[in-house]
Every structure is written in structure tokens, then in C-alpha cells.
Amino acid sequence: MVGIIIVTHYSMGEALMTCAQHIMGRPLPNLGQLAVSKADEPDEVLRRAQALIDELDDGSGVLLLTDIYGGTPSNVANRLISAGKVEAVAGVNLPMLVRALSYSHQSLDIAVSKAITGGLEGVLYMLPSSQP
């Protein structure tokens, strides 16, 4: 099963994990998160991230989901990419995470594709509903 690690600023990843567990209604042993602060030592963050990758990779690969492209979390994720083994997608949101988890039993490239489409399709302009 593809491992999924949410790499975000502060506690955003923890909140996304909690929401995903609630929505999925089951334990998510292939999911982890790494909270990053700009005060963190970059090499230490990389060590922690690599330890999570090693823990969650059963040979199927790992998908890193990060928040803002160009921020510290995405810079950490970018340094960990290993084509076909560790992939990364920026712009994590709850629809992206749920979709990635739903397809984590598939190959890494499918999980990446589904995560991206889930994230994009989960962003909608909402119009007010008709009131009776």
C-alpha cells in the first residue's frame, strides 16, 4: 500500500489526518504527518521526514502531500523526491487526501494522479441553494 505523508506548516497536517480518519471511518496505518516550522533545523526536518518514509514504505512507494509550493514544507518534500519511489504534490486539501487514501492500494503513479484530480475537483465555487 502506498504510504502517504502530509508535510505542512505547524499543525495543518495533524488536522487533515484527523479529518481523513473521521471521513474514512477506519484506521489509516499508511498515513503520517510531519509538522514543519521555519524555526526548525532543515537537516533535522529531513531526518524526521526520511524516518517517516522508511516507516511507511512497504515497497509500494510514498506520496508526500505538502501545503504551499515554495514554502519550507514543500522545499523539504522536494529534497526527498525519488522518481517512482517518493513523489510529492503541493496544494494539499482534504479532498486530495481522501482521494489519495482511497487509491493508496493502487500503484504510486495512480495514487499521485488521483490525489491531483481529487484536489482540483474538490475546489468549487458555491452558489446559494434555493430556499423554499
Task: Give a structural overview.
The protein is α/β, with parallel strands linked by helices and 132 residues long. It has one domain (3-121): Phosphotransferase system, mannose-type IIA component (Rossmann fold). Helix content is 45%, strand content 17%. The protein is built from five helices and four strands, in the order βαβαβαβαα. The protein has helices at residues 12-24, 42-56, 72-80, 94-102, 108-121, and strands spanning 3-9, 31-36, 62-66, 86-90. A four-stranded parallel sheet has the order 2-1-3-4, with helices on both faces. The mean pLDDT is 96.
Q: What overall form do the CA principal axes indicate? A: globular
Query: What is the class in the CATH system?
Result: Alpha Beta
Distance between the termini: 47 Å
Share in helix: 40-55%
Overall radius of gyration: 15 Å
Name of the CATH homologous superfamily: Phosphotransferase system, mannose-type IIA component
How many β strands by DSSP? 4
Features:
132 residues, alpha/beta, Rossmann fold, 45% helix, 17% strand
